[in-house]
# Entry
Amino acid sequence: MKKLINRIKTDGRVVSDGVLKVDSFLNHQVDPQLTAEMGKAFASYFGNRKITKVLTLESSGIPPAFTAAMELGVPMVFAKKQKPMTMKEDVWVERVFSFTKQIENEIHIGKAFLAASDRVLIIDDFLAHGEAALGLASIVKQAGAEVVGIGIVIEKAFQEGGEKLRNAGFDVLSLARIKSLTNQQVRFIDEE
Ligand code: 5GP
# Structure
């Protein structure tokens, strides 16, 4: 997605050889117009797969998952990192290692919001080592439902998540694929 790549070029900050900061439009402040276009891009690629639900992980996955769900005309569900007191009903739980925080989180989804008949599109902001997406996919499997695609806003293709997910048979669409972050510079795969 050209607009996204241009935005990363102008506003992205390389924190280290492995981490990109995009707080000004994706991870803290959110650009609604750009996020709406992300939703359109995901819906245009995955639109013919009879998706019934879009699934993401709080918090930064929510805006692109919401716009994708809006375009597809289906509900969006976000996994919670903490189980609130109000979540008394049966919940699916999975352990996910957080790349940015370097800790293991439990993620929770109320069983009422994921049925065996669901055809699920997983969306996340970043793909690094694939832990978040695999954790969500594992819950979908526990529910007896099907993952019909995985949409990622920014894939760091030099980390192994993309390969892991594709080798596991998932169809992954990433709107921007980063080849490297070395020397404080963002290089994209599509611009080779
Ligand atoms: P994974 O589970 O694929 O290892 O990492 C994906 C998750 O870690 C995303 O949900 C995202 O929140 C976070 N993440 C991974 N790499 C980056 C990065 O370079 N920058 C930011 N801001 N978040 C990242």
